[in-house]
Amino acid sequence: MTSTNATEASPSGRQFLPSLSHDGDPSPNQFLLPLTAAVNEADHLQIGGCDAVELVSRFGSPLYILDELTLRAACRQYRDAFQRFYPGASQVLYASKAWNCLAVCAIVASEGLGIDICSGGELYTALQAGVRADRIYFHGNNKSFNELQLAVEAGCTIVVDNWLELETLAGLDSEQPVRIMLRFTPGIDCHTHDYIRTGRLDSKFGFDPDQLTEVFSFISQRSTLNCVGLHAHIGSQIFELQPHQDLAAVMVQWLQKAAGYGLSVTELDVGGGLGIRYNESDDPPRIDAWVKVVAEAIATACQTQGVPLPRLLCEPGRSLIGSACITAYTVGTRKEIPGIRTYVAVDGGMSDNPRPITYQSICQAVVANRLSATDQETVTIAGKHCESGDILIKDIALPKIYSGDILAVMATGAYNYSMASNYNRLPRPAAILVHEGEANLILQRETYADLIRQDRLPERLGALFNGDSSRQS
Q1: Secondary structure of the chain in the HEC alphabet?
Q2: Mean pLDDT lowest among 33-42, 199-208, 446-455
Q3: What is the predicted pLDDT for the residue at 196?
Q4: Which among 279, 345, 395 has a CA at the least distance from the CA of 6?
Q5: Average pLDDT, whole number, for the chain?
Q6: What is the pLDDT of residue 128?
Q7: Residue 11: predicted pLDDT
Q8: Confidence (pLDDT) at 3
Q9: Which domains occur in the chain, in start order?
Q10: How far apart are CA 458 and CA 292, in angstroms?
Q11: For residue 20, which phi and psi values (nearest 5 degrees)?
Q12: What is the pLDDT of residues 287-299, one digit of tens each?
């Protein structure tokens, strides 16, 4: 991130407010703030018609603030773009590992999306939110026997990742053939962080392409298995479009080969991976541009190879919800090291936003209670955890910042809450949903009592604290 000399006056936080004047619907993944972000008369950041500073006063901080309009807009853009650009049937699935909770699942389902889940817990949450089982697709490279049973009983589609899962499902006593898809590694690389590249042959996910003919043969001899489709995913936070075109040709080739084994493979799931804007220099493609490339590539490959159009699925996560949320923090201490760096600490950190320390990701932020103030200093935003690496943003230009200011970190909807922890025994933050001036709690802030709710103290240890001071050291 480009820093600004402390002696220079530079643009205020208003520069990050969405500019929605261009033609066509704004693509949420191209904005740093939610589509409803604005500045109010108090010079405060406003999201969904709600004052972010007042929200912190009401709900505390750190606080996830999720804008319903932005999330719904992204859902509709994916859904409508597939209907516009793909001549066959389609289904958009929300990759709920980005943020799985009752409210988020309910919102995306109400927009006609299905849900991609990768654990029994995510499956349970989706079902409790009212998501239809036939729109739930279960991923994962090491699903337990109990998770597989739960998925079969629920009636969702299982994306089979390996031989153990395949053989386990084939042996289950099920009234109906188990509906499955096969995940394979397509051998396509793209420019993203090593931890989120999943399309390469050297990946923990999916069958190796060399195994697929043997897999097809195995399934063709098992009446307990109903293989309806193929799945591949090339990675996450991708700005390139060419890899998705390459993927289409590979997937259609394998669809054709599956038909040669008598398998009625009628669905292709191309995964997700479209990136979002985390800082000023990021320039991701629009949602509809990504869909157009994918849809046309699959249609062209099918026409070229003489294959009927499959039902086309995709699994966006980050690009649906990442830009729809900000995290609001309260500023605490300052530490100035002359000639080196000024640290400004906030009341959260790696426990509510693990992406910087995990992926070296770069974030952007504004002072939410003084949105028009000019940038006057370069500081490093530090978390409160007992780790030197707990740095949210290194060397960011901000107005002169004081204890008690409200700092809003942008684009925190994806993988922040879902990867949050209780490190240092910090309670996980609350999350609220804002829409047209109304704020609803969707995740209650944990308490200290919540932190020890699952703790168990053996009786022999508890005796040390029952008033027998002679037994204490």
Answers
A1: CCCCCCCCCECCHHHHCCCCCCCCCCCHHHCCCCCCCEECCCCCEEECCEEHHHHHHHHCCCEEEEEHHHHHHHHHHHHHHHHHHCCCCEEEEEEHHHCCCHHHHHHHHHCCCEEEECCHHHHHHHHHCCCCHHHEEECCCCCCHHHHHHHHHHCCEEEECCHHHHHHHHCCCCCCCEEEEEEECCCCCCCCCHHHCCCCCCCCCCECHHHHHHHHHHHHCCCCEEEEEEECCCCCCECCCHHHHHHHHHHHHHHHHHHCCCCCCCEEECCCCECCCCCCCCCCCCHHHHHHHHHHHHHHHHHHHCCCCCEEEECCCHHHHHHHEEEEEEEEEEEEECCCEEEEEECCCCCCCCHHHHHCCCCCEEECCCCCCCECEEEEEECCCCCCCCEEEEEEEECCCCCCCEEEECCCCCCCCCCCCCHHHCCCCEEEEEECCEEEEEECCCCHHHHCCCCCCCHHHHHHHCCCHHHCC
A2: 199-208
A3: 35
A4: 395
A5: 91
A6: 98
A7: 66
A8: 37
A9: 13-66+326-451 (2.40.37.10), 139-316 (3.20.20.10)
A10: 60
A11: -105, 25
A12: 999 999 999 999 9
Q: Which tokens is 472 given?
A: 């204490």
Find where tokens 């995740």 sit: 443
Rounded to 5°, angle at Cα 343 from 63 and 50: 25
Token pair belonging to 401? 């910042």
User: How far is CA 399 from each of CA 10, 13, 16, 34, 327, rounded to the nearest angstrom?
Assistant: 9, 9, 14, 22, 18
Contact 416, 355 (CB under 8 A): yes
Per-residue model confidence (pLDDT) at position 381: 98
Strand duo 90-95 + 63-67: pairing: unpaired
Residues in Cβ contact with 21 at an 8 Å cutoff, skipping those fewer than 6 apart: none
Q: Angle of helix 145-154 relative to helix 120-128, nearest 10 degrees?
A: 30
Give the Cα separation of 33 and 201 in Å (integer): 36
Tokens found for residue 200: 């390469």
Tokens of 360: 């070296």
User: What is the per-residue pLDDT for 22?
Assistant: 56
Which residue type occupies 68? E
SS3 readout for 106-117: HHHHHCCCEEEE
Which residues does the annotation mark as catalytic?
386
Angle in degrees, 0-180, between the axes of helices 242-259 and 287-305, rounded to the nearest 10: 40
Checking if the pLDDT of 265 tops 50, the result is yes
Q: Is residue 473 scored above 60 in pLDDT?
A: no
pLDDT at residue number 435: 98
Question: How much is the average pLDDT of 3-28?
Answer: 69
Least confident range from 60-69, 202-211, 246-255: namely 202-211
Instruction: Using pLDDT thresholds of 50, 70 and 90, give the confidence band for residue 467.
Output: low
pLDDT at position 235 is: 80
